[in-house]
């Protein structure tokens, strides 16, 4: 049986972090001609560890990137919760805490996908789309860039993250509800200091005033990752300010945060990869335009926030399904949009559910509240750290898999038949 070749159908992908290049990776394999436009002047650095699991790992295996991913694991050894004075209340190893076996820096993940796509995809840095004109009858999308360039593509894919502007230009913002979850987050790199406590751990310091600081090892030569979070039931607009103002705000809010805050503030001015966001979930009732020529993917379509721990996995698996449906229905983009929804929305809806009490339980106003929270973490640590639980856990998992094989079976559809094996035909 032969399948229609998608060759020479052109696709513009806006956003070059995770979801964008993951979609390009697959579209290239099916014979589409892909271009990625990334607003940043280079591959965007920054961010802390993200982990890959479940359908995310299944997508990675399909991409044959298991080894490339493993080579980039940060090697973080576990998670430790402390108070301001570095008294540890909970210490758990990999797999029993926030630290998973598959921790990789977001920037390293983006770089891995860049390396995998750069030969076939045209990458444009430092530009962005300013208007989108979808011409359904002609079966094309006309796009204008900030640089003044105008181009026509067969498809447009928006992978610009939760605060996507292109989503608006493509008239898909009307289907999106942005639901704040009540906290600010910032990530940045600082120089590594030998004296760093819990230096191979994800070290989370709970502070009164509904704040926390954290440090994570990146196992790079001279750096480590710092981060902060603080509760705010509404946006104060900090996320729209310049990095200089954002740094000043972080220094002000954490001025009394003890030695861990002092270390972070000391280096804050030097950091050139600050990521500062007021966290919110993206709930979109529709991911594609009526014609099926414009699609949303990744955080632009379904951001769950780092609190669900699935952002990266959802992006690469969702990208796989979107590209697969586009190849499957190359002659009918509307059917592709339908297939994308049907195959992927149920997983997204499930994944977006925040665990009870998250994030608010982490943010305590008083010293006393922080103590209660840390003592709860200490009990959690005792239970999950106990030899009994750690011995019994894998046994229960094994029984579970035997009883319910469908729950642990592969979850992603198969699109192998649309891959063009002959690279010369593809290019
Ligand atoms: C710098 C950075 C650091 C992050 N750090 C973490 C972290 O530590 N932990 C975590 O869980 N998640 C982090 N995230 C979010 C995480 O990457 C996503 O949740 C997830 O991987 C989905 O990725 P995405 O590609 O859909 O969106 P994102 O990763 O948000 O990427 C969107 C990309 O689109 C680009 N872009 C934005 N607007 C435009 C535009 N108008 N035109 C063209 N390009 C545009 C951005 O520069 C970015 O490269 C970070 C994201 C970024 C951008």
Unreliable segments (pLDDT under 50, ≥5 consecutive)? none
Number of continuous helical runs: 14
Largest sheet: 7 strands, mixed
User: Overall mean pLDDT score?
Assistant: 91
**CATH class membership of one domain:** Alpha Beta
Radius of gyration: 22 Å
Bound molecules: flavin-adenine dinucleotide
CATH architecture of one domain: 3-Layer(bba) Sandwich
Would you report the number of β strands? Answer: 17
In percent, how helical is the residue content? Answer: 25-40%
Strand order of the largest sheet: 5-4-13-14-15-12-16
Describe the protein:
The strands form 4 sheets. This protein has a 7-stranded mixed sheet with strand order 5-4-13-14-15-12-16. Helix 1 links the parallel strand 1 and strand 2. It is of the alpha/beta class and 427 residues long. It has a domain of 232 residues: FAD/NAD(P)-binding domain. Helix 1 runs parallel beside helix 4, helix 2 packs across helix 9 and helix 9 packs antiparallel against helix 10. It is built from 14 helices and 17 strands. The chain is globular and about 65 Å long. The model has no long low-confidence stretch (mean pLDDT 91). It binds flavin-adenine dinucleotide. GO terms for molecular function: FAD binding; oxidoreductase activity. This is FAD-binding domain-containing protein.
């Amino acid at each position: 049986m032969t399948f229609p070749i998608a060759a020479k159908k052109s696709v513009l992908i806006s956003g070059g972090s995770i979801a964008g290049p993951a979609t390009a990776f697959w579209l290239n394999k099916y014979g589409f001609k892909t271009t990625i436009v990334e607003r940043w002047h280079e591959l965007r650095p920054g961010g802390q560890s993200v982990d890959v699991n479940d359908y995310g790992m299944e997508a990675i295996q399909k991409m044959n990137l298991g080894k490339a991913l493993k080579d980039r694991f940060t090697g973080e050894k576990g998670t430790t919760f402390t108070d301001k004075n570095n008294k540890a209340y909970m210490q758990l190893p990999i797999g029993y805490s926030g630290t998973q076996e598959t921790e990789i820096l977001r920037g390293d993940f983006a770089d891995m996908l860049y390396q995998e796509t750069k030969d076939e995809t045209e990458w444009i840095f430092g530009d962005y789309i300013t208007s989108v004109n979808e011409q359904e009858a002609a079966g094309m999308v006309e796009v204008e860039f900030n640089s003044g360039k105008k181009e026509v593509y067969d498809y447009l894919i928006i992978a610009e993250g939760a605060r996507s502007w292109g989503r608006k230009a493509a008239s898909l913002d009307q289907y999106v509800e942005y639901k704040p979850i009540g906290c600010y987050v910032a990530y940045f790199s600082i120089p590594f200091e030998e004296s760093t406590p819990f230096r191979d751990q994800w070290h989370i310091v709970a502070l009164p005033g509904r704040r926390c600081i954290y440090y994570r090892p990146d196992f790079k030569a001279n750096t480590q990752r710092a981060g902060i979070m603080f509760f705010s039931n509404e946006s104060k607009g900090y996320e729209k300010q310049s990095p200089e103002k954002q740094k000043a705000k972080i220094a002000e809010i954490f001025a009394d945060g003890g030695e861990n805050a002092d270390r972070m503030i000391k280096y804050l001015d030097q950091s050139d990869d600050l990521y500062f966001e007021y966290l919110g979930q993206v709930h979109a009732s529709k991911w594609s335009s009526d014609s099926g020529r414009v699609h949303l993917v990744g955080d632009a379509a379904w951001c769950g926030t780092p609190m669900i721990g699935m952002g990266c996995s959802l992006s690469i698996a969702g990208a796989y399904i979107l590209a697969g449906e586009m190849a499957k229905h190359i002659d009918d983009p509307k059917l592709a949009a339908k297939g994308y929804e049907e195959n992927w929305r149920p997983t997204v809806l499930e994944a977006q559910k925040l665990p009870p009490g998250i994030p608010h339980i982490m943010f305590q106003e008083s010293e006393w509240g922080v103590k209660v929270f840390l003592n709860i973490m200490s009990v959690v640590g005792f239970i999950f750290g106990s030899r009994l639980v750690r011995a019994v856990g894998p046994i229960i998992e094994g029984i579970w898999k035997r009883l319910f094989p469908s729950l642990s079976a592969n979850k992603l559809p198969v699109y192998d038949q649309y891959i063009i094996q002959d690279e010369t035909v593809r290019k």
